[in-house]
Amino acid sequence: MKSLLSVTLSLLAAIFVAAAETPDPETLQNKIQISLGERFFVSFQRNGDALSAPEVSQKVGNKPDSVSLRFERIDDMALLVTKNPFGETLRFRALAKVKGSSTYFETSILPISAKLSSYESWQDDIETLILFDFSLSKELDQ
After folding, report:
1. Longest distance between any two alpha carbons in the chain, whole Å
2. What confidence score (pLDDT) does residue 24 get?
3. Boundaries of domain holding 15
4. Is residue 76, in this structure, part of any structural domain at all?
């Protein structure tokens, strides 16, 4: 009985710590908000491996290193399609908000290898994503 109580308390502590670490969308810098049904391109200022000052556009234009983003619903799945134009692995974090909620939760996003596309899907009724903490790395598993 003591071990069950100990495990339960440990799980509750982990949940509270995870909830406390969710970034506040209002204070995030260099973020992009994408709502269900949207599709656009994002160009960045690059400083080494860091990507900052995201600029959203409906066309690639004269910036060939623009990340392509599309967020749509297919059947009962929310799907984020990301095309990485860079010669390095693209990494970023994401907050998600489900329909009818006013709070965001952090969700996992896998790194996207150089010059490839990524397909992230959720069964949750997600209506908005906030993407942030963009960076590039030479290796996939860093």
Report:
1. 65
2. 86
3. 2-137
4. yes
Question: What confidence score (pLDDT) does residue 105 get?
Answer: 96
Would you say residue 65 lies in a domain? yes
Q: What does R_g of the chain's alpha carbons equal in angstroms?
A: 17
What global pTM score does this model have?
Answer: 0.81
Overall average pLDDT of the 9-20 stretch: 48
Place of tokens 């996207």: 112
Residue type, 49: D
Contact 123, 86 (CB under 8 A): no
Q: Amino acid identity, residue 54?
A: P
How many angstroms from the chain centroid is the CA of residue 75? 21
**Is 37 inside a domain boundary?**
yes
72-79: long-range contacts, CB 8 A cutoff, minimum separation 24:
72/36, 72/37, 72/39, 73/36, 73/37, 74/121, 76/123, 77/121, 77/122, 77/123, 78/36, 78/121, 78/122, 78/123, 78/124, 78/125, 78/126, 79/119, 79/120, 79/121
Alpha carbon distance 68, 60 (integer Å):
8
* Residue 28 structure tokens: 């995030």
- Provide the domain count of the chain: 1
Q: Is residue 142 part of a domain?
A: no
